[in-house]
User: Which sequence fits this backbone?
């Protein structure tokens, strides 16, 4: 497993997730709240489907 | 009609001539800008209603585009056909509206004849004409000078440079209003939800993420088999690994490639003689 996974906040723009994945060369991100608790997850397919890529 | 040569050189020469005339027209208009422009902006900013854009012929086509640009940049606006106006569409105008009337000559009869009725309604009138001494310009509360010295048409007849000037002055008006209102890219996106720009500015992570049952997650003490099943079931190509409280500082995703790597290392360890 990958310790300290890359995360993003739910209130950020989906475009920010695209940029983050592109920069880090990964295709998925965990979504956390202000307390760093897990609230969701998404991958590049979700972003393609939403038409933001 | 007397047909002319159609060699590429001749055609390109003509095109450049037209573009030069129109570019010069815009430059000249820029130097002619006066306080009428500032007055028009103030009138529209103070307006609690809509901007009703109107014009006949080519001015009407330009007016339609100006109305669309205003509407999409924070100034509610629509186009009213002057011909239809005197057959009932004048009812589109309310006392708190601003009418933006376009006419290069400033004398288009369809517009001039509805001016008194616009005024009687109490709406303000902004005129965009090519002649500050025209009836429309004189009657207006603010005048936008879109005058050009000549049209790009060799006969100096077809509205070409004058319509380009009106279109560009309409853009200047929209930009000045947008700036004064503090209109942002986010506001622009709100009127463009169908476009890719709107999607880029409006879609948030929360709109596309998997949550609840669709969110792959296993406990820190879960077996690799359980983690693989979770990854396969939720179809994200990974799973989050969380602590008992579901907190994340201790959590980590296990990507399928990690799992495959782990299985391979386990298998090779088993195969290798010890």
Assistant:
């Amino acid at each position: 497993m990958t310790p300290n996974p890359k995360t993003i906040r739910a209130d950020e723009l989906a475009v920010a997730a695209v940029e983050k994945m592109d920069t880090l060369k990964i295709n998925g991100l965990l979504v956390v709240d202000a307390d760093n608790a897990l609230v969701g997850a998404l991958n590049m397919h979700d972003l393609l489907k939403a038409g933001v890529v | 009609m007397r047909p002319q040569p159609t060699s590429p050189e001749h055609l390109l020469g003509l095109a450049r001539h037209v573009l030069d005339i129109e570019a010069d027209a815009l430059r000249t208009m820029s130097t002619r800008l006066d306080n009428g422009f500032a007055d028009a902006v103030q009138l529209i900013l103070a307006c609690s209603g809509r901007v009703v854009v109107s014009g006949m012929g080519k001015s009407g086509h330009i007016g339609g585009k100006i109305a669309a640009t205003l509407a999409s940049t924070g100034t509610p606006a629509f186009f009213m056909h002057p011909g239809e106006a005197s057959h009932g569409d004048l009812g589109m105008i309310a006392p708190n509206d601003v009418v933006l009337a376009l006419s290069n000559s400033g004398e288009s009869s369809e517009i001039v004849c509805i001016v008194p009725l616009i005024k009687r309604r109490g709406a303000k009138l902004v005129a965009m004409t090519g002649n500050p001494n025209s009836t429309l310009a004189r009657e207006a509360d603010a005048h936008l000078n879109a005058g050009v010295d000549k049209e790009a048409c060799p006969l100096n007849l077809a509205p070409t440079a004058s319509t380009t000037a009106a279109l560009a002055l309409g853009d200047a008006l929209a930009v000045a209003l947008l700036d004064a209102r503090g209109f942002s890219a986010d506001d622009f996106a709100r009127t463009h939800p169908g476009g890719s720009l709107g999607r880029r500015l409006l879609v948030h992570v929360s709109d596309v993420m998997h949550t609840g049952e669709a969110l792959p997650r296993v406990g820190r003490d879960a077996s690799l088999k359980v983690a693989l099943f979770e990854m396969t079931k939720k179809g994200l190509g990974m799973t989050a690994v969380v602590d008992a409280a579901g907190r994340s500082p201790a959590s980590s995703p296990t990507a399928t490639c990690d799992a495959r790597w782990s299985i391979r290392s386990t298998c090779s360890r088993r195969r290798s003689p010890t």
Observations:
- The longest strand of chain A covers residues 38-43.
- The interface with chain B takes residues 1-5, 7-17, 27-28, 30-32, 35-43, 46-47, 49-52 of chain A (CB under 8 Å).
- The mean pLDDT of chain A is 90.
- Chain A is about 30% helix and 25% strand.
